[in-house]
Amino acid sequence: MRKFLIYTFLAISSIIMIYPLLWLFGASMKSNSEIFTSIWFIPEKIDFSAYINAWKSAGGYTILHFLKNTLFIIIPKTLFAVISSSVTAYGFARFDFPFRKTAFALLFAVMLMPQIATMLPTYIMWREIGVLDTYIPLTLPSLFACEGVFVFILIQFFGGIPKELDEAAAIDGCGALKTLFYIHAPCIRPAIISIAVFTFLWTMNDFMTPLIYISSVEKYPLSLALRMSMDSTGQGYEQNKIIAMSILGLIPSISIFGLSESFILRIFLISRLTPSRA
After folding, report:
1. What is the C-alpha separation between 45 and 48, in angstroms, rounded?
2. What pLDDT sits at residue 231?
3. Looking at the chain, which terminus has fewer C-beta neighbours within 10 angstroms, N or C?
4. Where in the chain are the domains?
5. For the chain, first and last CA: distance in Å?
6. Contacts of 50 (CB under 8 A, 6+ apart)
C-alpha cells in the first residue's frame, strides 16, 4: 500500500510537471482563438502552418539564421567557461599561494553579487573599447572564470582527487598544466560536462545580455528573435507561431540535457560526498 501511494504521488507529480510542455506542443497546432479557450492540449484540428511561419521567423531571416547566431555565442562561451574555470579551480585546490583565502573569499562574494549591479559599468567599459553590437561582450568574460559557481564546484572535485596522482605525474615529468589536462581532467569529466551543459542552457535562455549589447537584427540570437517576432507586423502577433518558435528553440537544449543527464546527476551526488577544499 505504501509503494502504491508513493508511485501514485510520483505519477501525479510527473503529469503536473510535464503537462505545460505537452500543452505547449499542442498549442502550437491550435488557432489563436482555441489557445485561449481550451486548457486541453490536444487541438481540435491539427495544423502545422505555425511551424512553417515559425521557420520563416521575422526580419527577413529564418529561424535557422538565429539559431546559428546563438551557436556563435554558445560555442566559444562554453569552451572559455570550461577551460578558465578548470584552471582557476585547479589553482585554488592544488596550490598554496599568497592571499589564497582572500582571493577565494572575493570569488565567493562575486557569486553572491547580483548581475544587475555590474551591468552598467560593464556596458560602459565595452562601449569605450568599441565592441558593442558584437559577440565579444557576450563571450570574452567567460575566458576569465566569471562564473564563480563553476569554480566552486570544480574545487570540490579537485579536492577529491588523491595528491599521490600529482606526485606520480611529477615524477614522470609532467608540469602543472599537463597534470591538469592529462591526469585530473579525465577524473572530473562529469563536472566538466555538467559545466558545459549549464553554460549551454543558460546562454540559450539568456535574453537580457544580448538585448543590451546586440542592436543589429542580423546578429540577434534566438531569444531576441522570439521577442522581435511578437510584434513584427505592428498588428499584434500569432501566439501559435511564437509557441512553435519556442518549441523549435527547445530542441537543442532538450537534446543536450538528455544526452548529459547522467553526468549532471553524478556531479550533485559527488559534490555532496566530497568535503569543501578552500
Report:
1. 10
2. 61
3. N
4. 4-11+15-47, 55-273
5. 47
6. 28, 29, 238, 240, 241, 243, 244
What's the pTM value of the predicted model, to 2 decimals? 0.79
Q: Pull the grid cell for residue 265.
A: 546527476
CA–CA separation, 149 and 195 (whole Å): 10
Q: What is the pLDDT of residues 47-83, one digit of tens each?
A: 787 787 777 766 678 888 888 999 999 999 999 999 9
Amino acid type, 44: E
Given CATH 1.10.3720.10, say whether it is the number of domain 55-273. Answer: yes
Question: By the 8 A CB rule, do 226 and 246 touch?
Answer: yes
Which of 129, 189, 124, 202 has its CA nearest to residue 157? 189
Q: What is the band of 117 on the pLDDT scale with cuts at 50, 70, 90? A: confident
Phi–psi pair at 236, nearest 5 degrees: 80, -165
Confidence of residue 264 (pLDDT cuts 50, 70, 90): low
Query: Computed from CA positions of residues 250, 253, 259, 265, in that sequence, does the dihedral angle turn out positive or negative?
Result: negative
User: CA angle, 238 as apex, 236 and 244 as ends, to 5°?
Assistant: 145
- Residue 191's Cβ-count burial label (10 Å; 0-12, 13-18, 19+) is buried
Residue 145 has pLDDT above 50, yes or no: yes
Radius of gyration of the chain (CA): 23
Give the per-residue pLDDT at 271. Answer: 52
Q: Cα–Cα distance between 69 and 210 in angstroms, integer?
A: 11
> Quick one: average pLDDT of 81-92?
91
Task: Compute the distance between CA of residue 197 and CA of residue 261 in angstroms, rounded to an integer.
Answer: 9
CB 267 within 8 A of CB 153: yes
**In the structure grid, which three cell numbers stand for residue 258, read together?**
538528455
Amino acid at 153: I
Per this entry, what is the length of the chain? 278
